[in-house]
Amino acid sequence: MREHSLRRTIIDEMHLRRWPALVAPLSVWQVLRTVDQSERAGELEILAHGGAQVQAGERHAFGRIANVVEFAWERHTEGSSIAAFVPEGAPADVVDTVLDWIDALPGMVVRATHITLVKDPAHAEAVLGGMGFTLPETVSGRTSEGIQFWSDFRLHTEGFGRLLVSAGSVDPVTVSRRVQQLQELGNYRNMALLGLPQARAQWPQLDAIEARLREFAESVSDPKSHDDELLEKVASISFELATLSNAIGYRLDATKAYSSLVTERLDDLAPIPVKNFQSLSDFTRRRFLPAERTCAAHGARLEKLTLRAADLTALLRARIETRIESQNAELLLSMERRATEQLRLQQVVEGLSIVAISYYAVGLVAYAAKALSRYDRSIDVELVTGVSIPFVLVAIWFAMRTARKVLLAKPSD
User: In sequence order, what are the beta bridge partners of 4?
Assistant: First the structure.
């Protein structure tokens, strides 16, 4: 069987269980980071110290620290996430070692969560008061299988958010899948929101550019404005828009992609609201969707301003081309006038030339008549000279006219 080189990788990806089965009571510490490409080699070295042998390009790794704490690492497009699964009763020094090891991984933390998994709602009620949640802002929900969760989605003293999950009678594999979906929802939400501060920071710049475009539009319609100055202005505006777009374009596209994943995970979880608590769906829609729409609106506005700048540039080009065409028409008209004047001058010169040539030709006739008069005294030199004048003029005029026709009829090289 001739297999595609990626066949087994694809099949493994479809069947990969990124988290182990979660058996309560259990604590899960998950950290999501953005990681630069230059930090990947150092990340693999630290993972190797934890017992995970990861080859460059691999996207998942699993291991066990001190034979007590399992961990799962996953590489994402922009970063990595790692989750450590600490069973109840694990030595405190081991837990500290694990957290220090996780903290040593490279990258910038985007989300860090401490998940407390308990057996049933009764145990959850017992520990809920000590979670430090802000009760009016606490979100709670229940999955169709009976898994219930609580969180206020705030950072607490150790820098981690806190999530309390009651497994109930649900099997560990389903608990693992649901908790992972819940975490992915939060992770994708935070990654999507990375674009919001950048969008807000650019908003005043877009306001200024929009005002400049209005002024530029008025200048284009003013016939007294100089084209060179207008070209410099529109080039500056277009450059600023391109700079802003390049700076935030990828982030806005990522926000759009992550937002769709947030919606998918929320639909997958289909959380059932719990009385006296905010529902996860309402919390997500009220807090996340406005931010996502702000990013989308910023991208649309940036694109609209870019199109306006392009349209105004096209109008300026049309104005410049119209002026050039008018100048060319005036130049052609001027050249035509000059050609007409030159033709008239040439005709005058030709007339004078005929007179001049005729003068010399008549002079030659006079010399000839004088020479003949020596042999025949009856020849009147002055009469012969005077009578020859019209014949000479006509002959020279005809000769020059014939020469001009011949020259004009001859094709130029």
Answer: none
